[in-house]
Amino acid sequence: MSLASHAKKFSAPPTDAQGRIPLIGLSPEELTEVLAVHELPKFRAKQVWHWIYHRGAKDFASMGNLPKDLRAVLTEKYSIERPKVITEQRSSDGTIKWLLAMSDGQQIEAVFIPEAKRGTLCVSSQVGCTLTCKFCHTGTQPLVRNLGPHEILQQVMHARDVLGEWPSKDNANEGRDLTNIVMMGMGEPLYNYANVAKALKICMDEDGLGISKRRITLSTSGVVPQIVQCGEELGVNLAISLHAPTDELRSSIMPINNKYPLKDLLDACLNYPGLSDVRRITFEYVMLKDVNDRDEDARDLVKLLRDIPCKINIIPFNPWPGSGYECSDEARIGAFARILENAGYDAPVRRPRGRDILAACGQLKSASVRLKGRAETDGAEATS
Ligand code: SAH
Ligand code: SF4
After folding, report:
1. CA neighbor of 86 nearest in space, from 98, 103, 96, 104
2. Could you tell me if 188 and 204 lie in one domain?
3. Are 243 and 348 part of one and the same domain?
4. Could you tell me the CATH number of the domain that includes residue 29?
5. Which residues form the domain of 64?
6. What pLDDT is stored for residue 182 in this prediction?
């Protein structure tokens, strides 16, 4: 399926349940155009924009410098609401996971991970995923639909609400907890490229959410045709879910490799705009016991990535019921990392975060599926 027909088939609803048009996610020009039907002076659109992205307004009634009758019209026709919080779980390590319901009831998860010098929000791009990487729980859930630009941004805005980070500070990161964004939640962001791009442009806009592109990372399983475009248009950091050093092994755990094999993927990486020793690609490598964790795999990886400025993030496999995989043991992970480090690569082992609330990579949505299952068997009202 082409990207355009994929986008059409799985698109987000254009209005909410009350028929209101979401204003979040429109570019400044689009916002001006949409509001122009009300014959407003141009500065009104700027005021609305400022309320939305600088002040974090959640309703039009609070927009004190707009005429009262205009606020009433906006309330009737448009929406700037946040998604509904179904659950919020806080891990003993400070990680927060939210299960959020969109206006049509579809649910996604977003995870905030605080660290010493930064705080990262892991953002979802789709409800489910069309891809079926064998080690990933999201991959067992069929794609329901793409998220719209507003639904991607709403995750960031919701996190700012909870963290108390409105109004936005002029000095970008001064005093903020939420400093970084990773597109590593549910879904494949490059299969929803247009909406992800629109949302990220507003995230990066200094008059928008003001999060620099240097602090945004997009992770892809390797949708080759969109990789260079993403670099040209957005210039965000790129992470590639590699997970295997040969086509044979990679295809056996990531079916997308049959469509875009390693050579094409690595060519696209080499051509990633702005790639340099200071702006490296991150390759993610999940450690699956007795599958991809031999010394020989590490040595093959060293050879494979020889020409690409990169670092390799080693991710201990996060287990989920029925996956059929186990995480490599610590000694194996250490030995694997040492081979990469001795060959000159940065190869940090990612410390799993939020494991007690199933918030780690590849575990998302599992909790909501379980909760829904339980509600149904209890005869209680289902959550969506
Ligand atoms: N679809 C995108 C982004 C979401 S997945 C992608 O595949 O890159 C985010 C990261 O979590 C990817 O590197 C993915 O391979 C990894 N991942 C998936 N399942 C995992 C699991 N069970 N344990 C550890 N990492 C996992
Ligand atoms: Fe989809 Fe990424 Fe999971 Fe693969 S790893 S199934 S692309 S979310």
Report:
1. 98
2. yes
3. yes
4. 1.10.150.530
5. 17-79
6. 97
Judged by DSSP in three states, 19 sits in: coil
pLDDT at 327: 96
Q: Tell me which of 131, 136, 186, 317 to substitute to probe ligand 1's pocket, judged by most ligand atoms within 8 Å of the beta carbon.
A: 136
Ligand 2 atom, smallest distance to 129 CA:
1
In the set 230, 269, 361, 376, the catalytic residue is: 361
Mean pLDDT by 10 residues, the chain (384 residues): 76 87 96 92 94 96 95 96 94 94 94 94 94 91 92 98 85 75 96 97 95 97 97 97 98 98 98 93 98 98 97 94 94 98 96 76 55 39 26
Question: Among 227, 244, 215, which residue's Cα sits nearest to residue 191?
Answer: 227
Atom 3 of ligand 1, residue of closest alpha carbon: 184
Enclosing H/E stretch for 111:
strand 107-114
Specify whether 128 is located in the same domain as 39: no
Strands 119-122 and 107-114: antiparallel
Same domain, 334 and 233: yes
Token couple for 224: 């080759």
Residue 38 lies in a domain: yes
Q: What pLDDT score was predicted for residue 372?
A: 46
Say yes or no: 55 and 93 in one domain.
no
Distance 133 CA to ligand 2 centre (A): 6
**pLDDT value of position 351:** 84
Residues 155 and 197 in one domain: yes
143 close to 10: Cβ distance less than 8 angstroms: yes
What residue has token string 């026709």?
77
Contacts 24+ apart (CB under 8 A), 329-333: 329/289, 332/287, 332/289, 332/293, 333/287, 333/293
The answer to whether position 12 is within a domain reads no
Q: Both 138 and 269 in a single domain?
A: yes
Atom of ligand 1 nearest to the CA of 219: 8
